[in-house]
Amino acid sequence: xxxxxxxxxxFESLKVFxxxxxxxxxxxxxxxxxxxxxxxEAALREEKIDxxxxxxxxxKKSESLSLILRDSDICLPGPGKYVLFSNTRHRxxxxxxxxxxxxxxxxxxxxxxxxxxxxxxxxxxxxKIASKEESRIESHFGSGLDYFESVIMLVVSSKSxxxxxxxxxxxxxxxxxxxxxxxxxxxxxVDKLLVVRNGDRYRVNTSKSVLRHIGKRIxxxxxxxx
Length: 226
What we know:
Elements: H1 15-23, E1 27-32, H2 37-46, E2 51-55, E3 65-69, E4 81-85, E5 94-97, H3 102-109, H4 112-116, H5 123-143, H6 147-156, H7 162-172, H8 179-191, E6 195-198, E7 201-204, H9 208-218
Parallel strand pairs: 1-4, 1-5, 2-3, 3-4
Antiparallel strand pairs: 6-7
């Protein structure tokens, strides 16, 4: 795992942590961070630290580092190399705060669009790549709908009750004034997870950008549908 400059990542906020792990036989360290466990584990792998994961209710003796995920009170089986991943302070562990830099996090993510962005020199180029990928996804969602489904999606973006949806859909296309036909189409959108149903109420499960793309395909302005 390398930085934009090609140098290996060092995770500066974990410098003391890695020094302890490599030089001490026994320790109890708690990692405090706003990052996900995946990010921290990626840092361990990058530094080639062998470890095993345990819930605090099932900690076993291990010669390698034991990464503890808390689900109960902690009872250690004996001296060892213990790392608690939790933001709730434990008085028996030494706290170390993990705050990776943006560059470190980008190197960890591993998403091909992020990796491709390393060759660019500023965040604007990265945002352009993200925007292009977002547009591709929006196009995919919108192009998978027929005309009537598209109309219903636009209506449901502003109406929630079935009677309201029926009335507004009829105004946009008379064929959608048939309650049976409308219900069939709504059920199909629910099955596709594009609409969520809660009793007699419905709501769209897509972004505003997707709705705008849907509206554009059928000649409507999604923002003006009321």
